[in-house]
Design goal:
With 341 residues, this protein is of the alpha/beta class. It is built from 13 helices and twelve strands.
Amino acid sequence: MSSLVDVARVAGVAVATASRVLSGSDHPVSARTRAKVIAAAEKLDYSPSALARAMVSPNSRLVGVLVSDIVNPYFSVIARGVDDVATRAGYVTMLSNVDRSTTTEISRLQAMRDYRAAGVVFAGSGYVDDPQRPALLKAVRQAREQGIRAVSLADRDLGCPTITVDNHAAAHDVADHLLALGHRRIAFVEGPPGMTVTRLRREGFLARMRDAGLGRSAYCVPGGFDHEAGHTAALRLIARRPLPDAVLAANDEVAVGALGALRQAGIDVPGEISVAGINDLRIARHVGLTTVSLPLYEMGSMAARRIIESAPDSAAGSGATTTLSHRLVPRETTARRPSER
């Protein structure tokens, strides 16, 4: 395979000159020299790499997606939405795991700047009181000043457009469904401590319970966002009998973990206790889990279109927020409270 050095040698020009011609740089090069370089490139069947073009172009055709946990299927659905749109437009998606660390987000964003990415999607939630927030805001501002478009898929106020869902309302609505089934003692299994999405979903649940005059019948159990957290939370509930009427988990992964622990203990779901989640992932449909369907794929695809179709961002303005709708999906893991059947 021929290299840029080979093209420069055959054309009799400097490597920098050959690069300017083949990358489309605005740097002045005479028509005669330009013709020699193009002829040499055609003779050698030379094709410049995308990275090489990016190094002399304002931005590459790269879209970065920063996810909190790369094994969480929540982010897989979002990433698929981003990648489908990006691929059709001739862009490449780079998925990066940040382990719910703001410091790592800043580091990954710097890498996107080094690659002159077209844009970056912040797919994960932030923290309620984050000491690294000022540093992240500065990094996002600098990236946007460089022409990199940023989109957030969570309520984080990063100074860029936001595409999100109403997590408070989602938890409120599924709690309302459980109440409508006659359940009164409802336990909420929380997400990771300190995260904004955890707080919003917990507050949505508690708000609906208080509205029903059942604030004292609601209790929250420490959890996380994976199967293991749901399994552990369910074991705690089993150990503190009597069982609640229903369990609402912060997401589907946690709900499925709780569902497994309850059934392993010989507890009938939904005969003795109802279980529900939030997100409507593939696993929820597989096990018949009642949940709230969030438009995760649409969030990812809209973020990609915002990056690809919009004019380069400026540092000014915080960006608009687009809130997509959700819907309750009742399935087999919830039923009316036994005493009301």
